[in-house]
Design goal:
There is one protein chain. By secondary structure, this protein is an alpha+beta fold. It folds into 2 domains: 209 residues, 3-Layer(aba) Sandwich (D-Maltodextrin-Binding Protein, domain 2), CATH 3.40.190.10; 213 residues, 3-Layer(aba) Sandwich (D-Maltodextrin-Binding Protein, domain 2), CATH 3.40.190.10. It is 39% helix and 18% strand. It has 19 helices and 16 strands. It has a 5-stranded mixed sheet with strand order 2-1-3-16-8. It has a 5-stranded mixed sheet with strand order 11-12-13-10-14. A hairpin with a 5-residue loop joins strand 4 and strand 5. Helix 10 packs across helix 11 and helix 11 packs across helix 18.
């Protein structure tokens, strides 16, 4: 046998061995190792993911996926305890605002995954063959093309496993959906006040709240226009304040991720810069000396006040829909777009979870392959339909626009923008809530309150 023929024979033998050719179906199947993936999430029951999991395990019979739903109030503690004891899940959901906190526990997406498939091959005699495929994952370019803009801003972080090698941006997770902040309105209260439609601008919102607010003879609020203006009893108060700041032109961070919302634009008086202006607008609705006064600390949570018919407007997300219907089945309400500043910067606010892989997983390629599979357009639709969530994919937005429940949330997706990527979300929210309280109580130097808040939030980026 000449050298060329010998080389060809060796190459063919190598390929046949790699692909599993020549094995019986049983032998080929047994050559693929069994893989068990543990998957932790919160809020969504297992049935919302059942179609995706079944489709994936049918494609890969060697894989089993143990799905576990945890209560939201115990989720973070359970995760951290599990990772500390070496029993953490392979795949788990991370809230978009806490990605910076969890980054050290996450394994960024590889450029490719290597996955064995069992296929039937042959012409005269079919037999099972193991075919190992090297599959591309979602690149940053594809991420920006396929997903709404906020996703790339929230899931891409620098990765530097070797301090001698320059850091490079990598994808740390992919979402199944993206929610946006919207305005819920009690239709009966609006009708009684001769308000035909919910406000689309903050100027209209102010005027409508004034019309809707009712006081008794001693100045006590007996009907509130909106759950708006305080910190502790307004659901997602930090989200509302954040989007007001951004709509008003505030640059929350710079290109290097440094906190800049305390910055005073050139030529702007120190007591009139955008972040302070937005905070003052917000707190005016809880200030008894202002015409917008409609809310105070005596009310229950803004959600409870809305479902009890005590207030006309509530700011929330699509996940509030089933909660409202359960708490107040007869409430006549509508869901409306988040108000914007007339001639201002149009910004909406996102709230969502990101599917990520633990750095301790023993099955990294399989875990990332499943996330890519689950978030793909062809597979994620079943989850969106069952969970009734707005999409994260640009290509699916149009299919949700006519939905009575999801249309408003979907139409806001392309202009959704978050800002916090630090390492202590709780500390950030405490600082922002304290800012609300300080401005509401009154201070001789409100701009100093903004600067102090910015300094506290900055410290959570540098732990």
């Amino acid at each position: 046998m000449n050298t060329r023929r010998l080389a060809s024979t060796l190459l063919l033998s190598s390929l046949l061995f790699t692909l599993g050719a020549g094995c019986s179906g049983k032998d080929a199947a047994s050559s693929i190792p069994d893989v068990k993936l543990t998957y932790w999430r919160t809020f969504d029951n297992s049935d919302t993911m059942s179609d995706i999991i079944t489709a994936y395990t049918t494609l890969h019979p060697n894989v089993s996926i143990d799905y576990k739903k945890l209560r939201s109030d115990e989720y973070d503690d359970a995760l951290l305890h599990a990772f500390a004891s070496g029993t953490g899940p392979d795949i788990f959901s991370v809230h978009n605002s806490t990605m910076g906190e969890y980054q050290s526990l996450l394994l960024p997406e590889p450029a490719t995954t290597t996955i064995p498939y069992l296929e039937m091959q042959g012409t005269l005699r079919k037999q099972a063959v193991v075919v190992t495929k090297v599959l591309p994952t979602v690149s940053i370019k594809t991420l920006k093309s396929n997903f709404v803009d906020t996703v790339a801003e929230d899931v891409v972080f620098d990765y530097q496993p070797d301090p001698k090698v320059a850091a490079e941006p990598r994808v740390y997770g992919l979402p199944l959906s993206v929610d946006t902040l919207a305005l819920f309105a009690n239709k009966d209260l609006l009708n009684a006040a001769s308000i035909a439609a919910a406000p689309t601008s903050w100027e209209e919102f102010h005027d409508d709240v004034v019309k809707l607010t009712k006081l008794d003879s001693t100045g006590n609020i007996i009907q509130s226009g909106a759950g708006f203006g305080t910190s502790e009893n307004v659901n997602r108060a930090v989200d509302i304040l954040s989007v007001l700041m951004m709509q008003n032109g505030t640059e929350m961070t710079d290109s290097r991720g440094r906190i800049t919302f305390q910055t005073v634009p050139n030529g702007t008086p120190r007591d009139l810069f955008p972040a302070l202006d937005a905070t003052t607008f917000y707190t005016d609705f809880a200030n008894p000396t202002k015409d917008a006064y409609t809310w105070n600390d005596s009310f229950p949570s803004s959600f409870d006040a809305f479902t009890a018919g005590q207030t006309a407007f509530y700011f929330g997300y699509s996940y509030d829909l089933p909660l409202i219907r359960t708490a107040a089945p007869k409430l006549n309400f509508t869901v409306n777009s988040l108000p914007q500043i007339t001639n201002g910067r149009e910004v909406n606010y996102p709230n969502y979870w990101i599917e990520s892989v633990s750095k301790d997983t023993k099955n990294a390629d399989w875990a990332w392959d499943f996330i890519n599979f689950a978030t793909n357009k062809d597979n994620v639709t079943s989850y969106l339909n069952k969970a009734q969530k707005p999409t994260a994919l640009r290509s699916l937005i149009s299919s949700q626009l006519e939905s009575e429940d999801l249309g408003v949330f979907a139409e806001q997706l392309l202009l959704a923008k978050s800002w916090y990527h630090g390492q202590d979300t709780a500390a950030m929210e405490t600082a922002m809530n304290s800012l609300i309280d300080i401005i509401l109580l009154g201070t001789n130097d409100p701009s100093n309150a903004i600067e102090t808040t910015a300094r506290i939030v900055s410290q959570t980026y540098n732990q």
